[in-house]
Every structure is written in C-alpha cells, then in structure tokens.
Design goal:
Layout (H helix, E strand, L loop, with lengths): L4 E6 L4 H12 L4 E7 L4 H11 L3 E4 L2 H10 L4 E4 H9 L6 E4 L7 H9 L3 E4 L2 H18 L3 E3 L2 H10 L7 E8 L17 H4 L9 H9 L1 H14 L6 E5 L5 E7 L4 E5 L5 H9 L13 H4 L5 E2 L7 H11 L3 H17 L6 H13 L8 H22 L12
Parallel strand pairs: 1-2, 1-5, 2-3, 3-4, 5-6, 6-7, 8-9
Antiparallel strand pairs: 8-10, 9-12, 10-11
Helix pairs in contact: 4-5, 5-6, 6-10, 6-14, 6-16, 9-14, 10-13, 14-15, 14-16, 15-16
C-alpha cells in the first residue's frame, strides 16, 4: 500500500467533481480531500464539505464565502481567483484535480505545477489557452501532468506500450454527439434542448454543447498536442458512436492499441490518481459480448466545422488557440441563454479568429490577454447573430 494521496479538488460540484468525490469515498484508505473549490452551487457544495472535511475551500463570491464560513467555522474559506490558487497550492496537497470548466482553471493549475504538484487535468481549456507555458513550467518544476479526459487518458495508457519514436499517430474517438445522423438542412432549427441531449455521456451544459458542435474534439486535438508533444498532422479524429473505445495509438509497425472501458469518468479519474499503479475497483465491467458491434466512421468536416477550425488555430499557433477557446465560451453561453442560434456558435468563433492578429504566447499573462481580447470581440459580434427571443428558450440558471 502506498501512502495516502492528498487531493486539491478544483470544481467539486460539477460532473468531474461528482465522480472524484465518489472515487475518494470508495477508497478512503488511499485518498483524502484536503482542499476543494466550487462556483455558486452552495446547495451542493455545503454537503460535500461536510462529507469530505477539507481544510480549505473556495467559492466564487465574497458573499458566498461568508455563508460557508458561518456553516463551517473551522474551515478556511476563500473566494475568486485567489481562492482557487490557495486551494491548488496548499502545502498539504499532493495532487491537484482540475475539474473547472473553461479557462478559469488555468491560473490555479499553472501555480500548482510551478510548485511541482502533480496535475490531474480534466480541464482541456487550460492547455488550449496556455499549453506551451504551462508544460514548460511543469517540466522545470518536475511536475507530472496526467490527463483525466477519457480520450487522453486512453492515449496515455496506450502510449505506455512503446517508445515515442515508434508512434505513427494518435487517434481521438468522438461519439458524434446528438446530431450525427440528423439531416444537415435542419441544423438551423436545432434548439437548446436538442443540443443538450447527448447520446452517451452525462455532463454539464457547456461541455455538452461543445460535444454537439464537436468543438470539444477540436480542443482535445490541441490538448493532445501539448500533453504528448505530437504535432497536429499526426493527430486524427474518428467517429465512434458507442464511446467504448476512448482513443487509440497507431505504431509504426501498423499495430493499433485501443483503450476500452464503460462510459464512466471514475475510470480516468482513478487512473490519474493511482498512476503508475492499477488497483482493483468495484466499477462496472465491460461485457464485450453484450456490446455486440462497435462501429467507426470518418469525420464529416462539413457537419462538424469546429474540428478543422480548431486544427487550423493549432497550426497557426501563438494566440490563435486561446482566441478560439475564449470566443467559443462566449458563443456557447450566448446559445444557452437563447441569444444566438446553434449554427451561430462556430460562426462566432470563426469571425473572431478572422479578426485576430496572432501574437506569440510566451507566458500565461500573454495567453490571458488574448483570451480577454477574444471575449470582448465575440461580444461585439453577437448582436449580428442574435435571433428573436421567441424562437429559442434559455436554459434556467
């Protein structure tokens, strides 16, 4: 038995947080939550604090922090960006599990790796916005960066079978989301409810919309480039509707190694927290005979233009990926609020990128400047794409 790992959990009330807390509860002899953060969902966060008993927590606002202090007078409570950094850099934390959605997870992750802490990363935007400076800081401090995204966790496992020089290409799988077979001519009528109906994964609204447009797969290509130091030309995407094969590595001799498991985020979380060990788990097992057929399809770039757009941003380099991500976050939020149509999401991102003058990204600060520029620019473009309120309904806050 190895020493108990002490975890800083960023994003305790999201879908990754739910799965992480479940894993820790199953293995109290192996894992301990020492710090944790959440946004504004105190109804969910307060019971989580009572169960996990962390030393330090953080929430989004000063007002929410005051309420948490009142409920838990023995717990140190912070808020805002500094609160997230305090959670991620606490001296008692060995592993930082980054489950915050969006670029808000970047700064605490960066500050954690600078201290040499292991980063188990479920937040793909961190590497999309500032992959080069973050990985440089991790190498300098000797910090491990382990993927928690199911696709990158699969690649990480398959890459353990050979040397980097023996890898021909990485293949990310994608479910195709809810619109894989929907007639393309009806895409202009897609509603918020349609886009939130993911066929295989249960996730938060932002990532579910990213899965519908497949911007998430474009972001994952960028994430894979920085995690595994593989150029974009050697990263492919294939549609796999069953989401059982989580990704594959093709080696130079033609062998393809695939990783399979049930659609349950506790698998990649447990892998990252236990690495390099593997342990017995009570999680559901894969029944291949019951599954029957597994299918694969080529990516239709006309149906999913977000993927080639993201790959083009990666090839361009510099600030382009950060701009792509920020514009997408603004556009997805606008869609979820019923402001713009579904097709307006990727269109907004493309328009912002077309207006952007690419700059080098040598620091996290430079990445955040590009991020801020893209958010302002996207907001100025949204009115031209807005639709009448009666044709769409916002997701309740």
């Amino acid at each position: 038995m190895t020493a108990k790992k002490r975890i800083a959990l960023l994003g305790a009330t999201g879908s990754i947080g739910d799965s992480a807390l479940s894993v820790v509860a199953h293995f109290p002899e192996r894992f301990e939550i020492v710090t944790m953060s959440a946004g504004s969902n105190l109804e969910k966060f307060l019971p989580a604090i009572a169960a996990a008993k962390p030393k330090v927590v953080s929430v989004k606002t000063k007002e929410d922090a005051a309420r948490v202090r009142q409920e838990f007078p023995g717990v140190a409570v912070g808020f805002g960006e500094q609160g997230l950094v305090d959670v991620a850099t606490h001296p008692d934390a060995d592993v930082v599990l980054g489950g915050i959605v969006g670029s808000a997870g970047l700064v605490p992750a960066y500050e954690a790796v600078k201290l040499g802490k292991t980063l188990a990363l479920a937040n793909k935007e961190t590497l999309v916005v500032a992959g080069e400076p973050l990985m440089r800081a991790a190498r300098a401090a000797g910090a491990a960066v382990l993927p928690v995204d199911s696709e990158h966790c699969a690649l990480h496992q398959a890459l353990r079978a050979g040397a980097a020089s023996e890898v021909r290409r990485l293949v990310l799988t994608a479910s195709g989301g809810p619109f894989r077979t929907r007639p393309f001519e009806t895409f202009s009528a897609i509603t918020i409810e349609d886009a939130l109906r993911h066929p295989t994964w249960k996730m938060g609204p932002k990532i579910t919309i990213d899965s519908a447009t497949m911007m998430n797969k474009g972001l994952e290509v960028i994430e894979a480039r920085w995690l595994f130091d593989v150029e974009v030309e050697r990263i492919g995407v294939v549609i796999h509707p069953q989401s059982i094969v989580h990704s594959m590595v093709e080696y130079v001799d033609g062998s393809v190694l695939a990783q399979m498991s049930p659609n349950d985020m506790r698998f990649p979380i447990l892998y990252a927290l236990c690495y390099p060990e593997r342990i017995e788990t009570p999680l559901p097992r894969l029944d291949l005979a019951a599954l029957g057929t597994l299918t694969f399809e080529a990516l239709d770039e006309a149906r999913y233009p977000a993927v080639p757009l993201a790959c083009a941003a990666l090839k361009t380099g510099g600030s382009a990926p950060a701009v792509l991500n920020a514009a997408n976050e603004v556009a997805v939020e606008a869609f979820l609020k019923g402001r713009i149509p579904y097709l307006g999401i990727v269109e907004t991102v493309a328009r912002v990128l077309a207006r952007h003058k690419v700059l080098p990204i040598s620091s996290v600060a430079a990445a955040l400047e590009a991020d801020a520029w893209a958010r302002r620019e996207a907001e100025t473009l949204l009115p031209a794409l807005e639709r009448p309120a009666a044709t769409n309904r916002a997701v309740p806050a």
